[in-house]
Automatic annotation (TrEMBL):
Keyword Transmembrane attached: yes
InterPro entries, sorted: BETA-OHASE-like (IPR045019), Fatty_acid_hydroxylase (IPR006694)
Boundaries of every Fatty acid hydroxylase domain copy: 4-120
Molecular functions per Gene Ontology: beta-carotene 3-hydroxylase activity; iron ion binding
Protein name: Sterol desaturase family protein
Family of this protein: Belongs to the sterol desaturase family.
Single GO biological process annotation from the record: xanthophyll biosynthetic process
Transmembrane domains' residue ranges: 37-53, 59-77
PANTHER family membership: BETA-CAROTENE 3-HYDROXYLASE 1, CHLOROPLASTIC (PTHR31899)
Cross-referenced Pfam families: FA_hydroxylase
Keyword GTP-binding on entry: no
Keywords linked to the UniProt accession: Carotenoid biosynthesis, Membrane, Oxidoreductase, Transmembrane, Transmembrane helix
Amino acid sequence: MEGVAWAAHKYIMHGFGWGWHKSHHEDTEGIFEKNDLYAAVFSVLAIVLFAVASQGHPLIGAIAIGVTLYGAFYFIVHDGLVHQRWPFRNIPHRGYAKRLVQAHRLHHAVEGKDGCVSFGFLYAPPVEKLSAELRQRGTVAAEKRGRSASPVNKAPTIH
């Protein structure tokens, strides 16, 4: 599922679907942002898959379960941990969770839809690799412009 989400993020959300996803890369006020419409779309997709599965298609049922579980993990990990959209705050200081947060900060370090790195939601390449990729591209980080576009309102670090 992560591969499908990676491709959807890179080619749909950072492609023709940028109109919705752009809100995710900008400071927004309120509980919801336009990007949250993607969760609604994927929820409807899961419901349709479950309906098809109920007509005797167990493989489609397995896909529906996968989409649903991935959505739940996305909600908990990406929205909750990475973007701190929960009423409690927990910023990880080591391990896998820290790498996810750092990689997503680097994803948000690029202004606009082009030139971003790290399109996964539950997997992140090593931060050093992502930083090197941004340096190689000459991508200007938000910290160089004096503003933060990171998930938890801290300037991304690019070594």
